[in-house]
Amino acid sequence: TWEEAVAGSRKTAVYRGPTTPLAAERARQARIAVVGPVTERWAPEQAGPVHDNWQLAPPIGPSTDLWALGALLYRAVQGHAPYPEESAAELVQMVCAEPPAFAEECGALRPVVESLLRQDPTERPDFEELRGWLRSLVRS
């Protein structure tokens, strides 16, 4: 009946993620292709391997935003991204494997930028600390 068809269409499927290692790697490769080679989009915690529960990356949060801000400031002051961006796969590999080049042209912003681009998200400043640094730079 019509009522049964409508009731059946209201059921939502729950996506539980990839079910095999191959499916997980395919999902990761698809994510790399979709997101593309832009450093601001690839915090190390987002670029890492698939997690035990098949989650492709941890939820995006403040530490990811701080990474993006650091990459954007680096690009704005240095004139280029902190990592080469010719290939999304290579960018992801580099972001996971090594810290970016020093922000030599950033002057007084250098410690801020470099702290925002720390590999470990728990080592990045929080917003209050960042706010204090930026205010002191503006005042000087």
Number of strands: 0
- What is the architecture at the second tier of CATH? Orthogonal Bundle
**What number of structural domains do the residues give?**
1
Query: Percent range for helical residues?
Result: 40-55%
Q: DSSP strand (E) fraction?
A: under 5%
N-to-C SSE series?
A: HHHHHHH
What's the CATH C level? Mainly Alpha
CATH domain topology: Transferase(Phosphotransferase), domain 1
Structural class: mainly alpha
First-last Cα distance: 74 Å
Radius of gyration: 20 Å
**How many separate helices?**
7
Major sheet attributes: none
What features would you describe in this structure?
The chain contains seven helices and no strands. The radius of gyration is 20 Å and the shape is elongated. It has helices spanning 2-9, 21-35, 44-47, 62-78, 88-97, 110-116, 127-139. The protein has 140 residues and is mainly α. The termini are far apart. 53% of the residues lie in helices and 0% in strands. It has one domain: Transferase(Phosphotransferase), domain 1 (Orthogonal Bundle).
Observed structural traits:
single chain; 140 residues; mainly alpha; Transferase(Phosphotransferase), domain 1; 7 helices; 53% helix; elongated
